[in-house]
Amino acid sequence: MMNIAEYSIVNKVVSWLVVLILVGGGLGAYEQMGKLEDPEYTIKEAKIFTRYPGANAKQVNDEVTYHIEDAVQQMGQLKRIKMSISRAGISEVSVEFQDKYRKDDFPQIYDELRRKIGDMQHKLPPGAQPSLVYDEFGDVYGIYYGLTGEGYTYRELKDYADLLKKELVLVHGVRKVVIGGYIDEVVYIELARNRMAELGISPQTIIGVLESQNVVADAGRIRVNNDYIRVEPTGESQSVKEIGDILISSDDRRLTYLKDIATVRRGYQEVPSKLSYINGKPGLTIGISMISGVNVVEVGRNLGKRGQEMMELAPVGMEFTPIYDQAQEVENSVNGFVISVGQALVIVIVVLLFFMGVRVGLIIGAVLLITVCGTLWFMDMKAIELQRISLGALIIALGMLVDNAIVVAEGMLVRIRGGMDPVKAGNEVVSQTIWPLLGGTVIGILAFSAIGLSQDSTGEFINSLFWVILISLLLSWFTAITTTPMLCAWLIKPDPKDSGSEEQADAYSGAGFRIYRSLLASAIRMRFVTLAVVVALFAGSIAGFGFVRQAFFPDSNTPLFFVDLWEVEGTDIRHTRDDLLLIDEFIRAQEGVVTTSAFVGGGADRFTLVYNPESATTAYGQIIVEMESREQIAAMKTKIEAFMEQTLPNTEPKVKNLRIGPGRDSKIEARFSGPDYEVLRELSEKAQAIFRADPEAKDIRDDWRQPVKLIKPVFNESVARQLGINRQDLARALKQGFEGTQVGIYRDGIRLLPMILWPPADEREDVSSVQDLQVWSPVLNTSVPVGQVVSEWKTVWENAIIRNRDRRATIIASTNPKSDLATPLFERVKPQVEAIELPPGYLLEWGGEYEDTKNAQDALFGALPGGFLMMIIVTILLFGKIRQPLIIWLTVPLATIGITAGLLISNGAFDFMALLGALSLVGLLIKNAIVLIEEIDLQIGEGKEPFTGILDASVARMRPVMMAASTTILGMIPLLPDVFFVNMALTVMFGLGFATVLTLVVIPVLYAVFFKVPNPR
Fold first, then answer.
1. What distance in Å separates the CA atoms of residue 140 and residue 573, rounded to the nearest whole number?
2. Is the pTM above the cut of 0.70?
3. I need a labelling partner for 241 at 20 to 30 A (CA). Which of 70, 307, 775, 932 fits?
């Protein structure tokens, strides 16, 4: 019966058609498939914001946050309430959903979340505003620009930014355009306190007039004959100047123009909520997000083209400054990886040519190119974009892709050179190897299955690695049993000097084969000594692994880093701005700095998937620094830290790199949970003291920040009641006297400007004038000083922030190591922190890198048993016996010898990617072992004396095994400069290198032991 190899050789037209389809499909797919810098993964979070003006942090926590948490807790999809932050006047609840849900599930999840939050609104206290569910937390604005203009106002910048937004959102592939950093315009009405008292005008009278004056009023319609005419009364203010012409009636019926008693002016918020500066200049940010799955590079080019056209219409002096250009980063990343793939291809082909000869080398190289093209085609069909992980997977797979083809080509080369007909040679080789090769391929795929089945965010981030390996390895098996025999039959010619089995035996008569045969024979004769040496090496590697550096995910290749500045909690945003701009000016004066982008009051928009913006607070500022090269960052960070320590000693700075993959800013976190806030602060202080005692710790802080001052006017109720003044009247007077009160809206086209009533600057900025504030007394029908209804002014301390995690009050004490790796510091402080005595009802948990690593590894190892069980089943099915699979699995741990040696020699770290490399070694080693043991069984089954059969089979399989290992190892070289893949590359290169040499010796020795093969006499 004709097998698939024979069919491929005989039916050349069909075979070449398949080749053309794979190559053509791959080339076409490369042009159109999506291109990203990092793989997409779903940020499985949402936030619920609820404003409760006037409430302190505890009131917000008890009266608002509690009910929000209670509603969210009822959702079946919930993983945990990640963090609830209660501040004065606002509740912010961050919820995280279970890892098993993917992107397509979240529209329905968010709808249910909105329903739950909507249904509980009646439980909120009077004065609390409706809750807002923010489900666009994961939007990424990958094209992120700053817009500045010397001499231009925020309004003028915003007008042009709005024009840009309308045009850019029409570019194909653009999903959303957002504008940030704008300071809102307001209409200020400055009214002196004494003037108000003199006129005997109630503040409520002025507020009532202003609130009603600018409201659109529906006057209905009147029928006049056959017409139905709309009525619109006049009186609405058409300009800010006209607001001053509004007439105010005093108690004695006198009418006074508002402009006669107050100053009406239009301006920007004096206390903005957020500010942005690009290269030290105030400006706006423009963030552009793209539709999922598009070619980011192509969309970026189209945006650049349209943006260039629009800049020709921009007012003179306005400038665009790129803060982050994902399209350019993707193009650089993809181009760099394509070069790396090309380098790996060249390396693999050169190795093939060197070991296999020109013809066979070209055959296997051609099959490799066909397989890579076919892989790209299937990746496009499965909507896998070209990004860091998928391209890295291609490089990892390159060496593995030739394994199957090498075995087939090796077998056909020996047979055809020996005079066998190519069709018969192909039939014989593929018949013998088709199922062992498939089994080995499936095992190679199953070794990565834990990645494909891992459900946490880390697993989702690297998920495409598994699918690329799956597609490429299955395709390599298919091309090995179809395309490889066809090309071998076409290009390999019989050698007239060779014929018969004797000549075939001469194919393994080279010096390398003879040396290996001699060494292996000695190892089998001294089998127990050999195994004792191997066991000793393995034990040494286990002991040595304790000295290998541990890590989670490395930092990014992109030459960006962040400078975070934390002032004392409660600091005025304008003071935070001044300090941040001082740092910004210092940074811009340093060599190698390309741009700086400063944000005050909160972080930037999420411009890359792994960037997590900080919650809004006036005490926080951040500078994004772009350098000429990544190598300059370490020295620059040291300079900045020294400058801030000297210049701003009372702040909490943090200088951090841009990450790759999931993670968080603080690598070491001690979480204390319990009921009493003061006890939690004490526990946090004890942990921080331990951190401070370690010279390698920095960035030591907790997330509850410092308590803040609170002014408490003691309300004199007995006097106030006689004057007809209640507590709300007092609160309104105090608010209006310093912060101002909104008294209406001025409509200006597309903008709505709040009208703020407050005193002149000299009264607002003089805190001692608080006694002179006027509060309206309806009994006396005049204003009286606030001092008459306040018996005492107290200043106390309060918690500005209360944080809950999973509904328990939780404080996090955190630190970072001064070096790159957190594990050494963590191992020193962990036992000391755990020795802190916890009162009953209090809990300590570890977060940071420890938790991230544990969660990722738990998810990975949770999926491993299934994958390993399938691998064991496949090996048993291949042989139908127990001893052969047992021999194979006993050799798998030998990879540890090479891994430990390699990481210690290179000073590499065993991070999450190195763990994946170690898992991939399992598949590679088992695949090689299957090929070797299959051949030993075959040789002995043909009647050879067992000792000789082991030697002959091992020699026959030495070249394919060594070739497969060599191509995989050398194909990893292009990954060594990449910080993300370097530890994985080192793990695979050293682990496979050591394990392959040992496998070629240990498997035959174990075979001799398990099958009791006697030594020859």
1. 26
2. yes
3. 775
